[in-house]
Amino acid sequence: MPFVITDACIDNKDLSCIDECPVDCIYEGQRRLYIHPVECIDCGACEPACPVEAIYADRKLPEDKQAFLADNAQFFTMALPDRDGPIGTPGGSQVIGPIAADAELTGNWPAA
Predict the structure, then answer these.
(1) Is residue 10, in this structure, part of any structural domain at all?
(2) Into how many domains does the chain fold?
(3) Most buried among 10, 20, 57, 77, by the most CB within 10 A?
(4) Within 13 A of 72's CA, how many CA atoms are on the CB side?
(5) How confident is the model at residue 2 (pLDDT cuts 50, 70, 90)?
(6) Is the pTM of this model over 0.85?
(7) CATH code, domain carrying 38
(8) Structural domain that includes position 48
(9) What are the phi and psi torsion angles at 27 (to 5°)?
(10) pLDDT digits (tens, 9 = 90+) for 17-39
């Protein structure tokens, strides 16, 4: 998983990173954005585009943000609330559009 979006994005989705992503691998959940671990090419274009500094390279993820590695993966590999199955690897966020659900950590995150 090359890059991970963390808690600074929850309820604060700017979407600038989506505009910068050359491979359309940033998906919109209900409360935050998620980077697809297979579709991401590790180019890093998203990281400086984030105005709230929510994006980290997985290898530079601070210890207190480590739980977002699993939360990000779960968004794609587990059935989300009100969905029949996992999102999987659809080939780009524009293929499926915004998802009105989140992975468990984000979904249970306290409202600001």
Answers:
(1) yes
(2) 1
(3) 10
(4) 30
(5) confident
(6) yes
(7) 3.30.70.20
(8) 3-92
(9) -105, 145
(10) 999 999 999 999 999 999 999 99
